[in-house]
Design a protein that fits this description.
Oligomer: single chain
Largest sheet: 9 strands, mixed
CATH topology of the domain at 281-422: GMP Synthetase, Chain A, domain 3
Radius of gyration: 26 Å
CATH architecture of the domain at 281-422: 2-Layer Sandwich
Length: about 425
């Protein structure tokens, strides 16, 4: 009797699996029935609340009959735009226009225009996070130009335009530190955090103008160093790259809650990477202490992670940062390839002073100008409060603007090891 029951049980379980397996085919979508969005743009509309733009991949034009990539980046995607009241309604309208159903599961970037970011974007971020198709590791970009224009000018010079392009573009932060790979889930978490404020990738379309000047708002405060370091004062849309139009991600967009309040240029973004312990490698240029008309290029990386200490002094936050770096000289000439120990000490002292100045200027800019703690200093002081009520009563995010800073830098400069005295 028991054996019969076991047999019936096995048959029943097998039938259940078969039913589940077979019914699954009726609900699945085939690739030919969906339109894969690789990037989405969100900005203010002229006749409605929003203007929604989607960049859709055209698979049939990406692969030719020989199996090789066919078609240029210009015809491998299509940008569609619609004015609407919300993201969901815009997608719904677009679905009536095209013969395929829009799918966001491969969307790698959400691009907000600068104008809409200044009014607040939390409702759109919440809506995207609530979408089951949206990947939380998609990048969030604040565009200094129209979001639609940004998508239409996404023309990589070395690759075909695809979802992988948007995925790998912010990876330059690993070796330049001129931007940061900021994801939708990071931005969402920061909006709801009591320890920090959000920030996002700053993007724009290249001006293709070699005479474009550096960010005047940022470079003007660096009067004792800025004469020979304009390369690091750029923000997105200002770099003098001459390879036609295209998008560029340089700098960071700084928020208070969900509202855009300012931007950081390249060297300020490097400072953010150093303070927040996100730096991997970078190249910085400083004036040559032995020749005011020349610069020295340094390859920089951490020797030790930045040590941060936050305390309350006379009711205001007092923040100390001890920075420890290693650097190697990249630019050399005949007179400098025999650098002796005394010369290296002079250069090291000059580098330390330069970095201390830049780091303190960056920190005071975030506190006094932007009133935004994007470096998560709140985590370093929260343990001093006994209860969550005490922490909330102190109101760290509002108190950060009263902060004072002390930065010490220990950067050891080494000569270029490829050029040695023989």
């Amino acid at each position: 009797m028991k054996q019969v029951i076991k047999e019936y049980l096995v048959i029943f379980i097998t039938l259940c699996f078969c039913l589940i397996y077979c019914t699954g085919f009726y609900s699945q979508q085939y690739i030919d029935d969906i339109a894969l969005v690789i990037a989405m743009g969100i900005e203010e509309g002229e006749k409605n609340i929003l203007k929604l733009s989607v960049q859709i991949a055209l698979p049939s034009k990406e692969v030719g009959s020989s199996g090789e990539s066919g078609g240029s980046s210009e015809n491998s995607t299509k940008v569609l735009s619609v004015e609407c009241t919300s993201i969901d309604s815009g997608i719904n309208i677009l679905n009536t226009f095209i013969s395929k159903r829009i799918n966001l599961s491969h969307c790698k970037a959400f691009v907000f225009s600068e104008s809409i970011a200044k009014k607040g974007i939390s409702e759109y971020v919440y809506g995207l996070i609530n979408q089951s198709q949206v990947r939380p590791d998609s990048n969030i970009i604040i565009s200094k130009c129209s979001a639609e224009y940004f998508l239409k000018n996404s023309k990589p010079s070395l690759d075909e335009l695809s979802a992988k392009y948007y995925e790998t573009a912010p990876s330059s932060s690993e070796y330049t530190a001129y931007t940061e790979n900021i994801k939708l889930m990071d931005f969402f978490a920061a909006i709801n955090d009591s320890f920090r404020q959000p920030h996002a990738i700053l993007g724009s379309v290249s001006s293709n103008n070699a005479n474009s000047s550096a960010n005047s708002n940022s470079s003007s405060s660096y009067n004792q160093y800025s004469s020979n370091e304009n390369d690091s004062n750029y923000v997105a849309g200002q770099t003098p790259v001459t390879d036609g139009t295209g998008i560029e991600n340089v700098g960071l967009a700084v928020f208070v809650d969900d509202t855009l309040v300012g931007e950081l240029n390249a060297i300020e973004t490097v400072c953010h990477s150093i303070i927040s312990n996100k730096l991997q490698t970078s190249i910085i240029s400083i004036s040559d202490p032995f020749d005011t008309n020349s610069t020295i290029d340094l390859f920089v990386k951490f020797k030790n992670k930045t040590k941060r200490k936050v305390s309350i002094v006379n009711g205001s936050p007092y923040i100390e940062c001890d920075v420890s770096l290693n650097s190697r000289i990249l630019s050399m000439n005949e007179s400098s390839k025999y650098l002796d120990e005394n010369q290296l000490k002079t250069i090291s002292s000059h580098v330390n002073s330069y970095l201390e100045y830049q780091l303190e200027s960056y920190l005071y800019k975030t506190a006094k100008d932007f009133k935004s703690d994007i470096d998560n200093f709140g985590k370093n002081i929260v343990s001093e409060f006994l209860t969550i009520n005490d922490w909330e009563k102190f109101d760290w995010l509002n108190q950060y603007q009263n902060s004072f800073f002390k930065v010490s830098v220990d950067c050891k400069v080494n000569s270029g090891f490829l050029l040695l005295e023989v």
